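Hi P.,

Sorry for the delay on this. The queue was packed all week, but I finally got your sequence through. Input first:
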Amino acid sequence: MMLLGALLWTPLCRAQDSGSLRLFDATVQTVQTQVGASAKAGGAWSTEAGKMRQELLEHGAKTGEAQVQLALEQLLAKLDVGRVELLSADEQRYWTYLSAFSGQLDGAPLRHIGAWYERHGKHWFITRVMADGPAARAGLVAGDELLQINGQPFSPVNSLQSLAPDAMAQVTYQRLPWSKPKTISVSTEFSSLQTSLLREVTHGQKILSSKQKRIAYLALPMSSNAAFRTALLQFATQAQMQSDAMVLDLRGDYGAVGLTYSEAFLSPPAGPGAQPAAQVTPYTKPLVVLIDHGTSGGRENLAWLLKHRHRAVIVGHASAGQMNPVQAAEVLPSRYLLVTPANVGGQTLAARGVNPDIVSDPPHIFTAGHDQALDVALSQAADLAP
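Then the structure:
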């Protein structure tokens, strides 16, 4: 551990201590504090950190923040504690973590259009349009490629932050690879992404039809805020009366925070010491769960538990394998967040993840609103319905 501390004060490049290498030094220091002796930080990892820092120093003035961030991502991948993430304020997940850990439902607000994005190479595609948000009202759908905002290349966070509160964003997008790009006006909102995700739970509930069966559908981006639990329990109660089966959509890379709200689908354990589940009536009809590579944290734990208890059929792609609770610390104020597992000792579920019973893994690229995995899940739910 002493070697790690020594790395922070090496005199080899004092001129750059106030520049981009501050990010490197601050991240290494935060890893030492967050992870400590449970990682390889005291031995091989700290040696690698020293080598990486020396390489950055040799680049001199050419070393920018982007190069440092890439180097850190490569370095953090060598830790033996599960996935450790360095998130910048240019990323949506930075803001969802910041909001969730703030303890406030409306914490860490930013300007956005109510959509979630995924990058493929140099291209950005919408993976989810939040219910009742600006993007949904404008007609954007999952699979649309976003090209420009107000004539400038699209960026998930930075494209909208300079707009005035009442300004309309001119969004240029392409729906299919052979179609011409279109530009439409989309309003924006200044709110916490956590608030937008909660609106997805409360306003995105649907009763769909498949094979003449009524299938309840809910996309569930969870958080540790109690409002998410309340919304889920209310939906489960309503769905019990209104549907023949349910599809619970746990897909998407919304961050790893969140509790496992299993009481909405599983009866509480009986016996000495069991806590009474006052006013909680679980959904008891057939259940199909959608997962993908972004399913992590509380949602991944929920998927694992439902499969382990033979309560649900799992459809989609293997989950992230990040079931452990996480902790987050600001590396540079209002700029970078380091997310690490909160419990790194012993054998955990994080090494395994969840594998689907039925594999369906279509890409989100140019899907024009079509969701093959959801179609499979709805069909399976209808077959299971009485």
